[in-house]
Automatic annotation (TrEMBL):
This protein's record includes keyword Electron transport: no
GO MF term (any one): metal ion binding
Family: Belongs to the SCO1/2 family.
Disulfide bonds: C59-C63
Keyword Disulfide bond carried by entry: yes
Coiled-coil residues: none
The organism's taxonomic lineage, starting at the top: Bacteria, Pseudomonadati, Pseudomonadota, Gammaproteobacteria, Vibrionales
Record-linked Gene3D superfamilies: Glutaredoxin
Organism (species): Aliivibrio finisterrensis
Binding sites annotated in the UniProt record for Cu cation: C59, C63, H150
InterPro entries with a match to the protein in the record: SCO1/SenC, Thioredoxin-like_sf
Keywords: Copper, Disulfide bond, Metal-binding
Name recorded for this polypeptide: SCO family protein
């Protein structure tokens, strides 16, 4: 009987800690998109699965290729299935990428992709949580001054931010389509 009570106590404690962690993460992560409107990544009232991509608008190759593949995947999926997903681009370069600029960049690839920016602290919290690696690299003799070297994945998340799966950088839409179809209801 004592073992059963201990197990129940541990389960409840774990659940409580998760709720506290998620509440703190939600409170500390503020992202903004088009017209500086808040982008609530962890909106529990929105049941859609998030497809999150971390990148930056001045990326010369990886980000545009990845977002083009996401757009290509969306063009292969019916509207009913697509309505179950919420694609969000989060900039890794909030110093240069304003919320409006991030939104405009994301919309260039597909009208459903929300572009967002936030403080570097907010971005760091998210990248640490999902294992995104990135760092600023100075560019000598360039008007850009620096670039952002980063990992490239599509993160599929539940509304509370739990990672379901991730799809690595791809040069065809097929892996993204497969992930979407396997997660759609």
């Amino acid at each position: 009987m004592k073992k059963l009570l201990l197990i129940i106590a541990i389960v409840f404690a774990g659940f409580a800690l998760k709720q506290i962690y998620l509440a703190n993460l939600t409170d500390d992560v503020s992202l903004y998109g088009e017209n500086n409107n808040a982008v609530d990544l962890f909106d529990l009232n929105d049941p859609r699965i998030r497809i999150v991509y971390f990148g930056f608008t001045r990326c010369p190759d990886v980000c545009p290729t990845s977002l083009a593949m996401l757009s290509g995947a969306f063009h292969q999926i019916d509207d009913t299935t697509l309505s179950q997903f919420r694609p969000i681009f989060i900039t890794l370069d909030p110093e240069r990428d304003s919320p409006d600029h991030s939104a405009e960049y994301a919309h260039y690839f597909h009208k459903k992709i929300e572009g967002s920016s936030g403080s570097l602290q907010a971005v760091n919290m998210l990248t640490e949580r999902y294992g995104v690696t990135f760092h600023k690299t100075e560019l000598k003799d360039s008007a850009l001054e620096y670039t952002i070297d980063h990992s490239s994945y599509f993160y599929f998340l539940t509304p509370d931010g739990t990672l379901i799966t991730k799809v690595p950088h791809t040069v065809t839409p097929e892996p993204i389509v497969k992930a979407i179809m396997s997660l759609s209801q």
